[in-house]
Amino acid sequence: MRMRMTKRGRRTTTAAALLALALAVPLGAQALAAPADSSPTPTADQRQAPDQYEVSGVRTATERTRLSAQGAAINEVTDHSVVVTADKSLAAKLRKAGYDLTALPAAGRSADVSASAPSDYHSYASMMRAVDTYVAQYPNLLRKQVIGRSYQGRDIIAVKLSSNVAVDENKPEVLFTHNMHAREHLTVEMALYTLRELASQYGRDQRVTRMLDQREIWVIPSINPDGKVYDQDSGRFRMWRKNRQPNSGSSAVGTDINRNWAYRWGCCGGSSGSPGSETYRGPSAHSAPETRVVADFVRSRIVGGKQQISAHIDFHTYGELVLWPYGFTYNDTAPGLTQDDRNAHAAVGQAMARSNGYRAQQSSDLYITDGSIGDWMWGDQKIFSYTFEMYPRSSSGGGFYPPGSVINRETARNKEAVLLLLENADCMYRSIGKEAQYCRS
Q1: Pfam families given for it (predicted)?
Q2: 3-state SS class at 76
């Protein structure tokens, strides 16, 4: 998650949101999904659950990068400060280094709003049941497959959405990924919204129908099921970010999956080598099984030497941002990312941001990250890739845990952006007037 606060107004509920509400699977008590994450004695992460702090006097991208390199996960950015997640030991380290930290309200609670309970959101178990319900309801449009398993053995699924779903056709493919960071539960709701909204509107909505006829869409609702279960299923939020993979030689648990990708991994001060850090990159690229599962799936879509996936969004919270590569360098262009590549990324990104009211910018305009999925998607696979930071804009809206009452509004808010990406996916360079140069054989 990465964020910048702005002053744009809130969009109102749309008709699509009302449809989503009518189709939504009811949320009940959250069932534990086996295998359980049990430990005979408290681990370091259980003893020191992270808190959020405002760090004053951090104003520039360079200063934010320097702070992030200390091991803090930056959640929110203003012109004069940032909000970070840190455990008590890291908070003490930052204060010793001269940073001015102010503790913020507990997870899911602020002066303005709070999530009523983790049951506001689908659990991993109820998410899987919801997917099965949609597949049964729309068997000609949806197909679920297990693409691998998490460290603790939970299924990681991809759901294909297309008008001829049983056939692997020669159509542009688009991938949507969600819940890479455990505490970002609104992104799972985004995945479920996309599946039921597009499936239910096929044959009713002209744009949706055309896209399901002309595209193959893949939705991975949860990349990090172990972390999601750990953060949510105890009945209280734990502010957990990483996966649940132990680290050899350390009592600290977990790797930040979004610093673990094998493109410029650990190159540039945009991740941490400390296992206790929120942004720990792992001992090696793709060391997290969840990273390998998704990377292997993406590579499996190479047919006849050509990558079939042309565009991708990785959904996160919070901040209301549309970001594009690269994250590892402040430069707009770099090896493998030409000016035209950058301009096409920006043109489509800006169009999506106009549709949902988010802010559009290059990832590194916030601070440097390395080993991110967006950089890997473009740098390794030449897939146009975006990171969406969903609602809220700031911690005052609930931070990582906004109330369930906003779910339908905030997922429907991205319908137009999803359609825009789908419509551009056959030739992203059309957005800059260079279709003939890049997209015609």
Answers
A1: Peptidase_M14 (PF00246)
A2: strand
Q: Looking at residue 331, which CATH number applies to its domain?
A: 3.40.630.10
Cα angle 83, 87, 93 (rounded to 5 degrees) comes to: 85
Domain that holds residue 159: 19-28+110-438
With respect to residue 73, please indicate whether it lies within any of the assigned structural domains: no
Strands 302-303 and 306-307, sheet pairing = antiparallel
pLDDT digits (tens, 9 = 90+) for 409-418: 999 999 999 9
Instruction: Write out pLDDT tens, residues 164-215.
Output: 999 999 999 999 999 999 999 999 999 999 999 999 999 999 999 999 999 9
Q: How far apart are the C-alpha atoms of 133 and 215, rounded to whole Å?
A: 23
Q: What is the 3-state secondary structure (H, E, C) of 274-328?
A: CCCCCCECCCCCCCCHHHHHHHHHHHHCEECCEECEEEEEEEEECCCEEEECCCC
Is 69 inside a domain boundary?
no
Residue 324 within any structural domain of the chain: yes
- The count of structural domains within the chain is 1
- Asked if 421 and 257 count as a contact pair (C-beta separation under 8 A), the reply is no
> Is the separation of the CB atoms in 221 and 179 below 8 Å?
yes
The set of catalytic residues is: 389
Residue bearing tokens 């990171």: 387
